[in-house]
Amino acid sequence: MTEFIHLAIRYLPDLFKAALIYTLPLTAISFVIGVIIATITAMIRITHQPERFLAKIIVKILKIIAGFYVWVFRSTPMIVQLFIVFYGLPNAHIDLFSNAWVSAITVFSLNTGAYASESIRAAILSVDTGQKEAAMSLGMSNLQAYWNIILPQAARIAVPPLSNSLISLVKDTSLASVITIVETFYLSQQIAAQNYQILSMYLLVAIVYAVITTILTVGQRHLELYTSRYL
């Protein structure tokens, strides 16, 4: 126990520093991009078929693409996606993804977008359609009705599942170690290889992730209370 405390005092600051420099920025960037992708995907999937023939064809194609995108990323493991993007695409002469950060952000964002799109879609559909009809009867356009009436109400409903997606993403960033990003878990592996304290180092990195996710969980509860303050 004394040895573990000594290791904690020595290495926890470095692990938390790695979390601040690599894990949290990687999570934040990927989550923001992922939510944007998720919102666009959800809007496409719930769009009603327009009457005009050309517009109807375009919407149908977009729906097929959005559905295929969600299916691909929900039906394959994230680690496989990382290997395909980081190791596979550069081999196909797509050199942009030879950068580990670009590959990681791409995969984490698209994966988050696929899962979060279902949460956002369900949240939007849960808002009473009468809200939209009332907004349009007041002269609002379809876009204005969504932006000012539907999406704010859907955002409150989507907060819990999106918060869970964020917490899961923090833990999933540990997979970035397989494509050479020196984030928290990768650093713990490097230290364990030097001091041979494998169990202790993995316990320490577990503590780091537990602290971060606990803070985010507390933040989630406060955000839920804030968004529901008028109910």
Shape field: flat
Over the alpha carbons, how many angstroms does the gyration radius reach? 21 Å
Helix content estimate: over 70%
Helix-strand category? mainly alpha
Poorly predicted residue ranges: none
Strand-and-helix sequence, N→C? HHHHHHHH
- Tally the beta strands: 0
Major β-sheet annotation:
none
Instruction: Please report which band the strand proportion falls in: under 5%, 5-15%, 15-25%, 25-35%, 35-45% or over 45%.
Output: under 5%
The average pLDDT score comes to: 88
Beginning-to-end CA distance, first to last residue: 50 Å
* SS element count, helices: 8
Give the key terms:
231 residues, mainly alpha, 82% helix, 8 helices, single chain
Please, could you describe this protein's structure?
82% of the residues lie in helices and 0% in strands. It contains 8 helices and no strands. It is flat, with a radius of gyration of 21 Å.
